[in-house]
TrEMBL record:
<dbReference type="InterPro" id="IPR046251">
    <property type="entry name" value="DUF6284"/>
</dbReference>
<feature type="region of interest" description="Disordered">
    <location>
        <begin position="1"/>
        <end position="21"/>
    </location>
</feature>
<protein>
    <recommendedName>
        <fullName>DUF465 domain-containing protein</fullName>
    </recommendedName>
</protein>
<dbReference type="Pfam" id="PF19801">
    <property type="entry name" value="DUF6284"/>
</dbReference>
Length: 85
């Protein structure tokens, strides 16, 4: 039985000490508005876990959902837009 390596021998794997590449850091920076909006929505959801949501809670949840959708839409549009040099 021959076992094939998962990583080609010519490729030297990165170690955690190398840290993220510049491209990975750029991708994370581009996704930060989505991450922030997801955290806001999660906070709103956690706040109403153990009680009946009030009208203010409902507004907060709707606002957080709208913000998340807007951030996802902006990221999708950013990724699909052609780059201008």
């Amino acid at each position: 039985m021959n076992v094939l390596p998962l990583i080609p021998r010519s490729h030297t794997p990165r170690t955690p000490a190398d840290g993220p590449s510049a491209a990975e850091l750029d991708a994370i920076e581009d996704e930060m508005p989505v991450i922030d909006a997801e955290v806001e929505l999660l906070d709103a959801q956690i706040a109403v876990l153990d009680r009946t949501p009030s009208e203010v809670d409902g507004q907060r949840l709707r606002r957080a959902r709208r913000r998340l959708l807007a951030a996802r839409r902006a990221l999708a549009n950013q990724r699909s837009a052609p780059e201008v040099a």
